[in-house]
Task: inverse folding
C-alpha cells in the first residue's frame, strides 16, 4: 500500500458515484495507476483532486473525470489500436495502454515527449509508440484506428483523423470556436459518413497544428 492509495480510492469512488463512470475496466486501471508520478513533484499532494493540474510547457494533465469519460467513450477492447493526440505527461497514454490497447501517441512538445517516454519505460509498457510531431495530421502509417483520443481542443475535427478512423471506430475530441472552451464530441465512423454525439462542455489547452489552431 502506498501513501496515495486512499486518495486514489476516493478519486475512483467520486468517478463512479458523482460522475457516473460505468466502465469498470477504466475505473480499475485508474485505481491502480499512480497519477502522482505523472505530475510535477510540488503538486503530488494534489494529484487525486477533482481538477486539471499544470505540467511543463504551459500544458496540463486533465481532470480525472475527463480522462475517465474520454476513455470510456472510446469503448476499447484489449486488442484495440488507438491513436492519442497530445500525450502530455503520459498519464492518459498509460491508462490506454493498461487497458491492453496498442497505443500510438503523438506529442508536439519535445520536453514532454522525453519525460513521458521515461515514465512509460519505467512502468514497463511495451505496447506504446510515442513520437514528437503535429498530431492534427494523425499517424497514417499505423491507421486505421479503432479509437482516436485528442487531449486538446480544436476549432473542428481534423480531416486526417477522420480518414484514419476504422469503420465502427470512435474519435473523442474537444471542439469549440474559442481556444479556451469546448464541447466533448464523439464521432463514430459508419459505412457511409460519420455519427456525431455531444457530451457537454469541457475546457482543454488549444490543439495546435496544421488542422487545429495556429501557434502565433
Result:
Amino acid at each position: 500500500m502506498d501513501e496515495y492509495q486512499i486518495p486514489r480510492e476516493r478519486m475512483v469512488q467520486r468517478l463512479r458515484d458523482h460522475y457516473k463512470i460505468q466502465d469498470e475496466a477504466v475505473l480499475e486501471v485508474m485505481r491502480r495507476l499512480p497519477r502522482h508520478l505523472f505530475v510535477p513533484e510540488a503538486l503530488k499532494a494534489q494529484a487525486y483532486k477533482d481538477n486539471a493540474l499544470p505540467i511543463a510547457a504551459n500544458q496540463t494533465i486533465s481532470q480525472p473525470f475527463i480522462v475517465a469519460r474520454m476513455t470510456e467513450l472510446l469503448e476499447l477492447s484489449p486488442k484495440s489500436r488507438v491513436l492519442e493526440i497530445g500525450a502530455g505527461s503520459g498519464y492518459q497514454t498509460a491508462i490506454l495502454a493498461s487497458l491492453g490497447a496498442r497505443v500510438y501517441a503523438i506529442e508536439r512538445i519535445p520536453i514532454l515527449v522525453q519525460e513521458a517516454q521515461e515514465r512509460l519505460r519505467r512502468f514497463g509498457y511495451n505496447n506504446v509508440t510515442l513520437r514528437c510531431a503535429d498530431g492534427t495530421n494523425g499517424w497514417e502509417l499505423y491507421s486505421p484506428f479503432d479509437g482516436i483520443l485528442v487531449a486538446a481542443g480544436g476549432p473542428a475535427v481534423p480531416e486526417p483523423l477522420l480518414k484514419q478512423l476504422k469503420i465502427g471506430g470512435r474519435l473523442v475530441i474537444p471542439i469549440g470556436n474559442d481556444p479556451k472552451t469546448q464541447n466533448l464530441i464523439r464521432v463514430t465512423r459508419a459505412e457511409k459518413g460519420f455519427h456525431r454525439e455531444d457530451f457537454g462542455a469541457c475546457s482543454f489547452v488549444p490543439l495546435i497544428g496544421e488542422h487545429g489552431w495556429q501557434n502565433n
